[in-house]
Design goal:
The structure holds two protein chains of two kinds.
Chain A (H helix, E strand, L loop, with lengths): L4 E7 L2 E10 L7 H7 L6 E12 L2 H16 L2 E3 L5 H12 L14 H34 L7 H11 L4 H25 L6 H39 L2 H7 L4 H37 L5 H11 L2 H27 L5 H33 L2
Parallel strand pairs in A: 2-3, 3-4
Antiparallel strand pairs in A: 1-2
Helix pairs in contact in A: 1-2, 4-9, 5-9, 6-7, 6-9, 7-9, 7-10, 7-11, 7-12, 9-11, 11-12
Chain B lengths: L5 H8 L6 E12 L2 E12 L3 E6 L5 H8 L7 E6 L7 E2 L5 H9 L1 E4 L11 H12 L4 H14 L15 H12 L6 E5 L7 H17 L3 E5 L3 H7 L2 E6 L4 E6 L1 H7 L3 H7 L1 H11 L1
Parallel strand pairs in B: 3-8, 3-9, 6-7, 7-8
Antiparallel strand pairs in B: 1-2, 1-4, 4-5, 9-10
Helix pairs in contact in B: 4-5, 4-6, 5-6, 9-10
The chains are: A alpha/beta, B alpha/beta.
Chain lengths: ~375, ~280
C-alpha cells in the first residue's frame, strides 16, 4: 500500500491537485487540510487522479468537502479526469443539495426560560386535569354499561397488579412492620412500656405505612409498566389505529387499567396491613411481648375508622397511579428513548401525587377527627 | 446532471460474476418446531445484486436474518468466501471470526433501526468510532459524505424521531455504508419510499456495487427494481417451504420452468396489459 498524497500546482489562476497512492480510511488526509492548503488566488480547481491507487470512502468524502468549499468560494471544480465510478458517487452525493432545516434556537434568555417553564407547567396541569376529567367520564360510561372496555383486559390487569405483586408487597411490608416495631421499642423500653409497640405498629401500618408503601410499590411496578405499554403502543402507531377505528383510547386502554387498580389496591392494602402487623409481632416476640398480648393490644388500638381511612387513601392512590402511568404513556413520543422518558415521568409523577395526596389526607383526617 | 438510463443499470448489474462470496448448502430454517424453509442451495457471487424473492410470509427476512447471524439454521451451512483459503461457515466459526465477518457487512432493516438517543450523524459515526482509528474531523467528513449520498445532507443534527419514515430508511442505509462494507444486506429497502426515491436507491445500490466492489443482498417485492438491477435471485415458496428457482431475474421471468416464478416476475407486465384492456 502506497501513501495517500496530494500535490497542488498553481498554473496562472488554476489549481491542479494531483492525487496519488492508496486512499484508504485511516491512512488518508482529510478534506479540510486539502482545502486549507489551496492558495487564496486560485480561481479554478482541476483534479488529476491518474496516479490514484486503491480508494474507498475517504476519497469521495474529501472530494465532497472540496466541492462544497469550492461552491462556497465561487470556484470552478473540474473533476472530469476522475474515474467514472468516483464521479458517479460524487454526483449522487451532490445531486440533492444539502438542506438547511430550521431548528429552534438552543440558547434562550433566563427570563424567557422561566416563562417557558411556567407556560409548560400550566399546560401540564391543564392537560392532567382534562385527563382526569376524561377518565371519570369514561368510568361513568363503564358503570352505565356504555364503554367499549373488554372484561378480559380488566381481569388481566387485576392479575398483573394484584397477585403478581404480592411477593414484593410481602417483603416490603413485613420489613416496614419490623422497622416500626424496632423504632418504637427503643423509646418504649426506657419507660417499660414495650407492650405498646403493638399500638405503634398497628396505627402506623393501618393509617399510613400500608397504603403509602403499597402505593409506592405499585407506582414503581405497575404504573411504570402502564407507561411503557402505552408508550410502545403509541410508538408502534397502535393508538392511532384505535383512533381511526373510532375506539376511544381512554375507554379501551386507560379504563381497564384504572378499574383494575381501583379494585385491587384496597385489597393489597388490607394484605399489607396484616403482613406489616405480622412483621411487628416478630420483633415484639423478642421483647417479652407474647403473641396473645400483641393481638389484644392491636385490637384495642385500631378501630374501623382507622382501617377505613387507610383503605380510602389506597383507593385514591390507585386512581393517581393509573392516571400518572396512563397519561405519561399516551403522551409519549414515537421512539424508544421517549418510552424511557415516559416511564420515568410516570413514576416520578405518581410519587409526587402520592406524597401530596397523603399530606392532604393527614390534614383532612385531623380536621375531621378521623 | 445526467441520470443513468435502465440500459446502463442492467449492463452494470449483468457483469460476469467472479467468484462465490457466499454459499448456502442444504439450509433449513425454522422457529422451534415450526419449519420456515428447507433444502435451500444457492451461491452468491462477488458484485452480485442478489434478490431474495417470494410471496408474503415465505421466509425471506428469516433467510436474510440467518445470513447475517441472527437466526441460526436448524440444519445446513452458510459459508462465506467458500472458495478462498479464509472461507468460513459462519455458525461454526469462533466469536472473533464472526466479529471480523460482521465488520465487513452493512445491514439495513425495514424500519431503519436507528438508535433513537443519537442524532443521524452520531448513528452513522458509531461504526467508524468503534472500528476505525480516525480523527473526529475525518469522521465528520465521512458522515457528511454518507448522509449526502443518501440525500440527507444537512440533517446531521436531527434525531430519528424528528425525521420521516423514508428518511429513517435512508439514514439506516448511510449507517450501513459507514465502513464501506463488502457485503450489503437490505431488508425491504423500497417499502414506504416514493417511486423516485426508490429509483434513486436502485442507482445508489448499483454505484456502490461498482465503486466499492461490494456485493448486495436484498429482500424485496419491488419487481421494477428486481428486474432492472438484480443480477441474481432466489425464489422462495411458502407452500412447499423451499426454493423454486435461482438465477438471473430477467432470465427466470422469460425461461423459468416453474409457472409460479414466471407469473410472479411478469406481474408488472400483466398489470400493464390489463390496464390497456380496460
Amino acid at each position: 500500500m502506497t501513501e495517500a498524497r496530494f500535490n497542488i500546482d498553481l498554473q496562472n489562476d488554476q489549481c491542479i491537485i494531483r492525487f496519488s497512492g492508496d486512499w484508504q480510511l485511516g491512512k488518508a488526509p482529510d478534506g479540510e487540510s486539502l482545502c486549507t492548503a489551496l492558495p487564496a488566488d486560485c480561481k479554478q480547481v482541476t483534479l488529476v487522479l491518474e496516479d490514484l491507487g486503491l480508494w474507498d470512502s475517504s476519497l469521495p468524502a474529501v472530494l465532497l468537502t472540496l466541492a462544497r468549499w469550492c461552491e462556497q468560494k465561487g470556484l470552478i471544480l473540474d473533476s472530469l479526469s476522475a474515474p467514472q465510478s468516483l464521479q458517479n458517487l460524487l454526483r449522487l452525493a451532490t445531486e440533492i443539495p444539502s438542506a438547511t432545516p430550521s431548528r429552534p434556537a438552543a440558547t434562550k434568555k433566563l427570563l424567557q426560560r422561566f416563562y417557558d417553564l411556567a407556560e409548560m407547567l400550566g399546560r401540564e396541569i391543564s392537560a392532567t386535569l382534562i385527563f382526569i376529567g376524561d377518565a371519570f367520564i369514561a368510568l361513568r360510561a363503564w358503570l352505565t354499561g356504555k364503554a367499549k372496555t373488554r372484561r378480559s383486559d380488566i381481569r388481566f390487569f387485576i392479575a398483573q397488579a394484584g397477585p403478581q405483586a404480592l411477593p414484593i408487597v410481602t417483603l416490603i411490608c413485613v420489613s416496614v412492620g419490623m422497622i416500626l416495631a424496632y423504632l418504637g421499642s427503643v423509646q418504649l423500653r426506657q419507660l417499660g412500656a414495650q407492650v405498646y409497640v403493638a399500638n405503634l405498629v398497628a396505627i402506623g401500618m393501618v393509617r399510613e405505612m400500608a397504603p403509602l408503601m403499597t402505593a409506592i410499590i405499585i407506582a414503581g411496578r405497575t404504573g411504570a409498566a402502564y407507561a411503557a405499554q402505552l408508550g410502545t403502543m403509541r410508538a408502534n402507531e397502535e393508538i392511532d389505529a384505535l383512533k381511526t377505528m373510532g375506539i376511544s383510547a381512554m375507554e379501551f386502554l386507560v379504563l381497564p387499567r384504572l378499574i383494575a387498580l381501583i379494585f385491587i389496591m384496597p385489597l393489597i392494602c388490607i394484605y399489607a396491613n396484616v403482613i406489616g402487623l405480622a412483621g411487628g409481632a416478630i420483633v415484639a416476640s423478642g421483647m417479652d411481648v407474647s403473641f396473645k398480648q400483641y393481638i389484644l393490644q392491636t385490637q384495642g388500638a385500631v378501630n374501623g375508622g382507622d382501617i377505613f381511612s387507610g383503605m380510602f387513601k389506597s383507593l385514591v392512590f390507585a386512581i393517581l397511579i393509573a392516571i400518572a402511568g396512563c397519561q405519561a404513556g399516551l403522551n409519549c413520543g414515537r421512539s424508544s428513548i421517549a418510552v424511557g422518558i415516559a416511564t420515568t415521568s410516570a413514576v416520578v409523577r405518581a410519587i409526587v401525587y402520592l406524597v401530596l395526596a397523603d399530606a392532604m389526607f393527614n390534614v383532612l383526617y385531623d380536621k375531621l377527627g378521623i | 446532471m445526467t441520470v443513468p438510463d435502465d440500459t446502463d443499470r442492467i449492463s452494470a448489474s449483468a457483469a460476469a460474476p467472479a467468484k462465490p462470496i457466499m454459499r448456502v448448502t442444504d439450509l433449513t430454517l425454522g422457529y422451534g418446531s415450526r419449519l420456515i424453509q428447507q433444502n435451500l442451495n444457492f451461491e452468491i457471487y462477488k458484485n452480485d445484486i442478489f434478490y431474495i424473492v417470494g410471496g408474503s410470509g415465505c421466509g425471506k427476512t428469516t433467510l436474510l436474518k440467518s445470513m447475517i447471524g441472527l437466526i441460526p439454521p436448524a440444519q445446513g451451512e452458510i459459508i462465506y468466501h467458500p472458495d478462498a483459503a479464509e472461507g468460513v461457515n459462519f455458525y461454526g466459526a469462533s466469536p472473533s471470526i464472526q466479529l471480523e465477518l460482521r465488520k465487513s457487512w452493512g445491514v439495513t432493516y425495514q424500519s431503519g433501526a436507528l438508535f433513537s438517543s443519537m442524532t443521524l450523524a452520531e448513528n452513522v459515526a458509531l461504526p467508524l468510532q468503534l472500528y476505525k482509528d480516525l480523527p473526529e474531523r475525518q469522521i465528520a467528513e465521512i458522515v457528511a459524505y454518507k448522509l449526502s449520498l443518501v440525500g440527507l445532507g444537512g440533517f446531521e443534527a436531527f434525531y430519528p424521531a424528528e425525521v420521516s419514515g423514508g428518511m429513517l430508511k435512508r439514514a439506516g442505509l448511510a449507517r450501513a455504508l459507514a465502513l464501506d462494507p463488502q457485503l450489503l444486506f437490505f431488508d425491504e429497502p423500497s417499502a414506504g419510499l416514493d417511486p423516485l426515491s426508490s429509483l434513486r436507491l436502485d442507482q445508489l445500490i448499483v454505484q456502490i456495487c461498482q465503486a466499492l466492489d461490494s456485493t448486495v443482498i436484498i429482500v424485496s417485492h419491488e419487481l421494477p427494481s428486481i428486474l432492472s438491477i438484480g443480477s441474481n435471485c432466489v425464489f422462495l415458496d411458502a407452500k412447499t417451504k423451499t426454493m423454486l428457482a435461482t438465477g438471473h431475474p430477467q432470465e427466470l421471468a422469460k425461461n423459468s420452468e416453474n409457472e409460479q416464478v414466471v407469473q410472479f416476475l411478469n406481474r408488472a407486465e400483466q398489470i400493464k396489459q390489463s390496464r390497456y384492456h380496460d
